[in-house]
Write a structure and sequence with these properties.
Layout: H1 3-17, H2 21-32, H3 41-58, H4 66-79, H5 83-104, E1 115-116, E2 126-127, H6 138-158, H7 168-181
Antiparallel strand pairs: 1-2
Helix pairs in contact: 1-2, 1-5, 1-6, 2-4, 2-5, 4-5, 6-7
Length: about 190
């Protein structure tokens, strides 16, 4: 799935579950964290074909595994206000990312994209699903649209959105616009 869908998969439930705004941001980060290994695509920009080979070989490997999930969970536990609750949800959201990729992240070559769950441990389970749909398939688009609907509704109802992390004034204007166009239920 694309990074926007992963972010929404973290933000929509995270905003509801978090004790504090910072915890909501941390849960969203946990949902997106496995794709840190996608930064290898930058090697393709720098080093052409060899860099793209690096991305193809290591995306869904370096940070799409249990050890990365435990590291992300530990980091969230250190930084969150509600440490235990946030750590548990971070671990769940990290794995939600892996499940979403198993379901809908088939590459452009038509091959399913496996996840070596215990990498770098040799002989560990490799997670793969033969029914995996392509990253741009209609179910992914439908999921993203549904999550965007929930995102906008929650911003209206809760009175804040991730824009708050950049600018409180911009977030207030965004929420006010949503509330003008889609008033709160009576």
């Amino acid at each position: 799935m694309n990074i926007i869908t992963h972010a929404l998969l973290g933000w929509v439930p995270g905003q509801r579950l978090a004790a504090q705004r910072r915890d909501a941001l941390l849960l969203t980060g946990a949902a997106m964290a496995p794709d840190i290994d996608a930064l290898g695509i930058l090697a393709g920009v720098i080093d052409g074909e060899r860099g793209l080979e690096w991305f193809s070989h290591y995306h869904h490997v370096l940070t799409h595994n249990l050890w990365a999930g435990l590291a992300v969970t530990g980091l969230v536990a250190l930084l969150a206000y509600d440490r235990r609750r946030s750590a548990v949800w971070a671990f769940v959201f990290f794995h939600l990312h892996l499940v979403a990729d198993l379901v809908g992240a088939k590459g452009p070559d038509g091959e399913p994209w496996p996840i070596p769950y215990l990498w770098p441990v040799e002989g560990g389970p490799v997670l793969v699903w033969s029914g995996q749909w392509e990253i741009n398939a209609w179910p992914n688009l439908l999921l993203t649209v549904g999550l965007l609907f929930l995102f906008f509704r929650q911003a209206r109802d809760f009175g804040w959105s991730p824009i708050r992390y950049l600018s409180a004034r911009a977030d207030e204007a965004f929420v006010a616009t949503l509330r003008r166009r889609f008033p709160l239920p009576a």
